[in-house]
Amino acid sequence: MSAIAATLGARAAERPVLRERGQREVFCGLTGIVWLHRKMRDAFFLVVGSRTCAHLLQSAAGVMIFAEPRFATAIIDERDLAGMADANAELDRVVGRLLERRPDIGLLFLVGSCPSEVIKLDLARAAKRLDRSASPGVRVLHYSGSGIETTFTQGEDACLAALVPELPAEAPEAPEAPRSLLVVGALAEVVEDQLRRLFAALGIGPVRFLPPRLAAELPPAGPRTDFLLAQPFLAETARVLEERGARRIAAPFPLGAEGTTLWLRAAAEAWGVAPDRFREATAAGEKRAREAVGRHRAALTGRSVFFFPDSQLEVPMARFLARELGMEPIEVGTPYLHRQHLAEELELLPAGTVLSEGQHVERQLDRCRAAKPDLVVCGLGLANPLEAEGIATKWSIELVFTPVQGYDQAGDLAALFTRPLDRRDRLRV
Ligand code: SF4
C-alpha cells in the first residue's frame, strides 16, 4: 500500500460509525439473479427454494417474460420439509430434465435459499455430484442467496466467489511476465465496452472481466493479476481472489465523473502510466461526464438526502451526490461497512455526515423523520410509507439495475436522483 493510501485508510478508520442491530427491511440475495442471468449468457440459476422465492424472482424479473428464462425455482414442498421425500433425488431429477431440455446451458448454479438452509440440504455436495454427471459440457456450482442475515447485493458476491475456484490458473511463464487486470463486478455490456476502450487508450492490458459473458471465457487469476472492484459489495469475492495471490488495487468506485477518474487513475498508477497519457485518455470522457452531471446540479444542490441501508452502494452514492451535485448527505446507512474497500470513499464523504451500519428500522425512521430530508434512498418496503408521509424516495434497487458506472452513465446516475424530486415538485404545483 502506498504511503498516501495508508494515511487515507487510517483516517477513514477513525470515522465514527453508528452500529445498529434490529429489525431490517431488505431483499434477499436471490435478487442478484435478475441482473446476473442477463450478464452470463449461458448460465442458468436454479433456486432450490419455496413458492415465496419463486414469486420474488418472478416479480423482480417480470420484464423477462418474453425471453427463454434462465432461472427457475425447484420448489421444496411440505413433503421435503417434513423429511418425507428424498430432496436430493428430486433435485437430481429436476436438473437432469433441465439439462436435457436446455442444451444452451454451460454453467448451472444451484442457488440456496432460506428453506434449503432450514432443511439443511447440502447443495455443495449436490453440486459436486451433479457436476460429475454433467461434465464436461456443463459445470454445476452452488451458492446461497438466502435472506437469513444477508442483503440483496450479497447474492452477486456469493455467486462470483463461487466462480473464483473455477478460474483457470495463469499461464506458467517467467515471474517477470506482464500482469493482467481483472475488473470484478457485474457491469452492463455497454459499460464494459466503454471501460475496455479506456484501458486500451491507457495502454493497460490484458483486461478481463468477472463475471465473463460466457462460462467458457472464465478469466485466469493468480499472483500476476491485479484486480479492481467495480462494485463495493464484493468482500468475499475479493477475499478469495486474494487467497489465489491476486492483488486488489485500492480505489474509490467508478460512479460519477470524479469517481470514474479516480478509479481509472488507481489502475494507471499501478501500471505506471504517465500522467500526460492519463489526461489524454480520460479528459474527453471526464468532460462529457461533468457536463451531463452539471445539467442536474440546479435541481439537487443544497438539498438533503438520507440513505437507509440496502444496496451497499450507499457510501459511494453519497460521495457522488455530495461532491458532484452539492447535496447534503445527512445519514448514510449501509448494511455492512467494509472499511478497507471503502477507505478511499470514506475519505471523500463530508465530515458531518452520520455513518450507520446495520439497521434498527424504527430508530432509523425516527431519525429520518426528525431530519426531514428532501430525498430518502431506501428499499421498496420503506418507500411507500415514506412517500405517504410526504417524503420523496428513490428505490435503491434501481441503482443496481441501471447501468450507472463510468463516464457516459454519470448523467443517468444523477437523473435517478433528480426524477423523484422533480415528480414531487410537480405534484405540489
Ligand atoms: S430466499 Fe428466503 S428471503 Fe429470499 S425469497 Fe426465499 S424465503 Fe424469502
Automatic annotation (TrEMBL):
Molecular function terms, GO-annotated: 4 iron, 4 sulfur cluster binding; ATP binding; metal ion binding; oxidoreductase activity, acting on iron-sulfur proteins as donors; oxidoreductase activity, acting on the CH-CH group of donors, iron-sulfur protein as acceptor
Nitrogenase/oxidoreductase component domain span: 28-414
Cofactor dependence: [4Fe-4S] cluster
Swiss-Prot/TrEMBL GO biological process terms: light-independent bacteriochlorophyll biosynthetic process; photosynthesis, dark reaction
UniProt catalytic activity: chlorophyllide a + oxidized 2[4Fe-4S]-[ferredoxin] + 2 ADP + 2 phosphate = protochlorophyllide a + reduced 2[4Fe-4S]-[ferredoxin] + 2 ATP + 2 H2O
Function statement: Component of the dark-operative protochlorophyllide reductase (DPOR) that uses Mg-ATP and reduced ferredoxin to reduce ring D of protochlorophyllide (Pchlide) to form chlorophyllide a (Chlide). This reaction is light-independent. The NB-protein (BchN-BchB) is the catalytic component of the complex.
Entry protein name: Light-independent protochlorophyllide reductase subunit N
Organism: uncultured Acetobacteraceae bacterium
